[in-house]
Amino acid sequence: MEVAGMTLSCQELVELVTEYLEGSMEPATRARFEQHLLVCDGCGLYLAQMRRTLRATGTLRERDVAPDSLDVLRQAFRSWKLRAARG
Amino acid sequence: MRAWTFLRGDSRDASWPRVSGSAPGAWRLPDEGAPGVTVAVREDLAWWIAEELWEVEVAGPRVAAGNAVFVRAARLVRRVDRWGPDVWEPFVIRCKHVALRAVSGSRWAEATTDLAARAQRVGARSAALAGYVTALACASSAGERDTDGHRARFAAERAAQSGWIARALDL
After folding, report:
1. ipTM, 2 decimals?
2. Gap between the Cα atoms of B114 and B119, Å rounded
3. Would you say B166 and B45 are in contact if contact means Cβ atoms under 8 Å apart?
4. How many CB atoms lie within 10 A of CB A8?
5. Which residues of A touch B35 (CB under 8 A)?
6. Alpha-carbon span B40 to B67, nearest angstrom
7. pLDDT higher for A6 or A57?
8. The pairing of beta strand B68-79 with beta strand B37-39
9. How far apart are CA B121 and CA B127, in angstroms?
10. pLDDT tens, B55-85?
11. Cβ A3–B151 below 8 Å, yes or no?
12. Which residue has the higher pLDDT, A61 or B19?
């Protein structure tokens, strides 16, 4: 929901960061997002980390990962899925 | 339309081509996925405070939303040299007085006094924080967060701050 005349909270910003980076955010929300960054170093850092992560993972191919690490990752994902399925 | 933008004076400003001598900078186009280049009008200056203030020339359609204006393209024309410590300091003092008056006797008084004192010690960043905290202090005196009264008071104080800045800089 759009709230005119106020900035976002940190929690709201974190929830919206994907929308911001994908460019799918409403203009008014985008303005509030950018205004929050002006007064919150923590969220600025968080956004920078997200950008770096996206850049790094965006260029990572399966064959770039060592086989041992790939097995560990696959096992971890399977565990998460199982835990999620069990609720 | 007269418009301005605040820059931070660091690498985050890289997307704004700088002026060369007396010639304006090259046109800046929107970031990927953005509805336009974000600029500020006189009434919204306080929402965007940062280290450098620049007058910009804008072009193309514009969308006003959420205390911002998004334009198809914008370029830096000239820096507002007076935006600096000589304006930041009285702005912070003005905010401090408004904030303390707003929260006097409330549970916010101590925290606001502490923030106001800290804000007075450094530069534009403190002015940005002082403006934000003051608007929040005023809003807190008008009701709980996310109520109409709270939002209206927050926006009214931001408008008052923007007016103060514009008068101080003859914008």
Report:
1. 0.76
2. 9
3. yes
4. 20
5. 27, 30
6. 8
7. A57
8. antiparallel
9. 10
10. 999 999 999 988 899 999 999 999 999 999 9
11. yes
12. B19
Q: Do B119 and B85 meet the contact criterion of CB atoms below 8 Å apart? A: no
* Structure confidence at residue A54 (pLDDT): 85
Q: Taking Cα atoms as reference points, which of A51, A54, A10 lies closest to residue A33?
A: A10
Say whether B38 and A31 touch across the interface (CB within 8 A). Answer: yes
pLDDT higher than threshold 70 for residue A58: yes
Paired strand residues for B54: B5, B79
Q: What angle do CA B158, B164, B167 make, to 5 degrees?
A: 140
Token pair recorded at residue A35: 């205004």
Alpha helices (runs of H) in chain B, residue ranges in sequence order: 85-103, 109-119, 124-140, 148-168
Total residue count of chain B as it appears in this document: 171
CB B70 within 8 A of CB A33: no
Chain pair A-B, CB pairs under 8 angstroms:
65
Confidence bin at B103 (pLDDT 50/70/90): confident
Q: Which two tokens stand for residue A6?
A: 């106020």
Nearest residue of chain A to residue B128 (CA atoms): A39
Q: For residue B160, give both structure tokens.
A: 């008052």
Tokens of B60: 């193309």
Instruction: Tokens for A63, please give them.
Output: 């064959």
The b/e string for B18-31 (b: 16+ C-beta within 10 A; e otherwise) is ebeeeebbebbebe
